[in-house]
């Protein structure tokens, strides 16, 4: 006669019994739980292994590349004759570069021009004294007279003998007149501005610099 052992208390029951005669627990077979396969863990492990392999290959590749680059960048010693020729050639290039630098510096120097260093205006009659520095000097004058009944004038004269001026007689047209002079001096020059019966006058001093 077949028997069925209770999985709870171990009592031996008849094979046809559905419940344990001792503890009353069902004797029907209880399927053992099947543990699910942890597929996610396997996938993660596979990915980590692949990443490790890729990193190892990349590190090895770059290491080999750096070694090859270092070997190719080493300068090979030249022979004695070639070294002398290269040295001479290098000297010529240096001289050419120095010449080009000098030429560039010369061409980049600012060009000179006439620069206004003093401007004076007035009206009526009177005199004014002006000191002008040394250098290349240009003087420009202009004046407009009062209605003529005598000789109106504007004269500019320097202590170096240089002078210019405009004047009007009693029969001259009442109009603006102008004049100019230029000279070069190594020292300061004193100019006297003499004006008579003018509505307005102007004297401008320029230096070439």
- In terms of DSSP E residues, the strand content is 35-45%
> Can you tell me the residue ranges where pLDDT is under 50 for at least 5 consecutive residues?
77-92
Radius of gyration: 57 Å
Mean pLDDT: 81
User: Count of helical segments?
Assistant: 2
CATH architecture of the domain at 114-208: Sandwich
Helix % is 25-40%
Query: What kind of sheet is the major sheet?
Result: 6 strands, antiparallel
- Number of E-type strands: 8
Structural class per helix/strand content?
A: alpha+beta
State the shape: rod-shaped
- SSE pattern: EEHHEEEEEE
Instruction: Compute the separation of the termini in Å.
Output: 136 Å
Quaternary structure annotation: single chain
Q: Please name the CATH topology of the domain at 114-208.
A: Jelly Rolls
